[in-house]
Amino acid sequence: MTVGPDEETRDRKKWMGLLARAEAGDLARLWQDLGRAPAHDVLRAPEIGGIMLRGRMGAVGDAFNIGEMSVTRCSVRLANGPDGHAYVQGRSRTKALQAALVDALMQSGAADAVRAKLLSPLAEIEAKRRASRAAKAAATKVDFFTMVRGED
Amino acid sequence: MYVAVKGGERAIDNAHAWLAEERRGDARVPELSVAQIREQMTLAVNRVMAEGSLYDPDLAALAIKQARGDLIEAVFLIRAYRTTLPRFGASRPMDTAAMACDRRVSATFKDAPGGQVLGPTFDYTHRLLDFKLAADGEVPFAPELADAEPSKDTPHIMEFLDREGLMQRDTDGRTPPRDLTREPLELPATRDLRLQALTRGDEGFVLGMAYSTQRGYARNHAFVAELRIGKVAVEMDIPELGFAVEIGEVELTECETVNQFAGSKTEPPQFTRGYGLVFGMSERKAISMALVDRALRWEELGEDNLGAPAQDAEFVLYHADNIQATGFLEHIKLPHYVDFQSELELIRKLRREATADRGAHRAAAE
């Protein structure tokens, strides 16, 4: 099966988002378990900064600024080619570096192994966390019942 | 005129050392960790993030610890740290319709699609002190609905009124928002700047202003059409990549109020909205923000200026920021020896003159 550039981008967006949302501890543990230390150059050392978060007036209108969020970014180049980039929430330099390395590895021959051993377990952790919150929220959903007054 | 006076270094050093000791409190009591504050003082952390204008729960928790629980001092620490961060860019406007809602209630529609989801709320508690919490407690357990559907987008309730044309609609003119952290706030302030000032404004101040509108100053009877709290994805265009990726997710509280509007020369009678969007679970603040937002919209909606404080953008926006207010208020406790010396001399001179005058009058009368 051939994969078009759109699909490649969609796939990459997915794993980059997953890496960004992951807890630094979970990513560090799975990276350790992956047991890879690919030779690489650091194009941009992990750098901590902020981005301005925007909302919309009335949820649908023009944008306005709410406040900033801390973000760490990092770029690497593997010895055998592909560049990896990361923009991840928080101030963990280790997380940003590992996310950039994973992004690069996912564009290399190691993609299948990285997906199986790192991305899939990470996605599972996230799915479990989300499902648990959704199930707790669902348990607080109100069932209304109407009391009929008088005779009909 | 300012005159520099040196001295007091040793006193200052010792004062700060004592501050550190007092911050720690009784050393026989275990020290609080930043993680404990983050996990167990979450709503304080949320408030510091909202008013500090930086979403970072760990830093907010650290600031609360350092400030000995003084939340405005903690906000000050976060604001100071924020200025050291290089700005990488801005997110795309966050899509709150795609929020994974922990809580979502409507005071206007009982049978809102998606339902009334209470979430972890203080509502309906009896506000009785729970002495069980003073003892070493077990880890509490929240029930989960076994066959809960996976969370999907929850449409905004306002959309249903929108469809009937009963609701004044906010539209996206794709105007890039102005940023009051980058340029000084000037009046008249557009709604983007007003909303930014309100979302980072002091919760107590915004609450007081909102309450004044309910009590009759710029009366605009508001219903909470929808209040939702949950996680929303943050997406940003990455220049190196040429496309947007999610770079994290944040918890937000959003409040949309629906208000009566009699219509004006250009608009038919319809409902109008007030809007609140705040970092974290910050329900009181989000509702307050929506009420004050609505009151400040009198001019663009062609309503009368009733002279109410909440309609006065200058009054509201220039006094909502607790760091500006604290800075100016607290500076008067710092040495003003020379200023005061001149006041003292002036008052002595005036008294001498007044006494001399009275003496002269008496002499003339005799």
How would you describe this structure to a colleague?
- The complex is a heterodimer of chains A (152) and B (366).
- Chain A is of the alpha+beta class and 152 residues long.
- Chain A has one domain (5-128).
- Chain A has helices spanning 5-21, 24-34, 93-105, 111-139; strands at 40-56, 63-78, 83-89.
- Chain A has a 3-stranded antiparallel sheet with strand order 1-2-3.
- In chain A, a hairpin with a 4-residue loop joins strand 2 and strand 3.
- In chain A, helix 2 (24-34) packs across helix 3 and helix 2 (24-34) packs antiparallel against helix 4.
- The longest helix of chain A has 29 residues, at 111-139.
- Chain A starts with a helix and ends in a 13-residue tail after the last helix.
- The model of chain A has no long low-confidence stretch (mean pLDDT 92).
- Chain B is of the alpha+beta class and 366 residues long.
- Chain B has 2 domains: 9-82, no CATH class; 96-119 and 151-169 and 178-326, no CATH class.
- Chain B is 39% helix and 16% strand.
- Chain B is built from 12 helices and 6 strands.
- A 4-stranded antiparallel sheet of chain B has the order 3-4-5-6.
- In chain B, a hairpin with a 4-residue loop joins strand 4 (222-238) and strand 5.
- In chain B, helix 7 packs antiparallel against helix 9 (283-296).
- Chain B starts with 8 loop residues before the first helix and ends with a helix.
- The mean pLDDT of chain B is 91.
- The chains are: A alpha+beta (152), B alpha+beta (366).
- At the A-B interface, helix 1, strand 1, strand 2, strand 3 and helix 4 of A face helix 3, strand 1, strand 2, strand 3 and helix 7 of B.
- Strand 1 (40-56) of chain A pairs parallel with strand 2 of chain B.
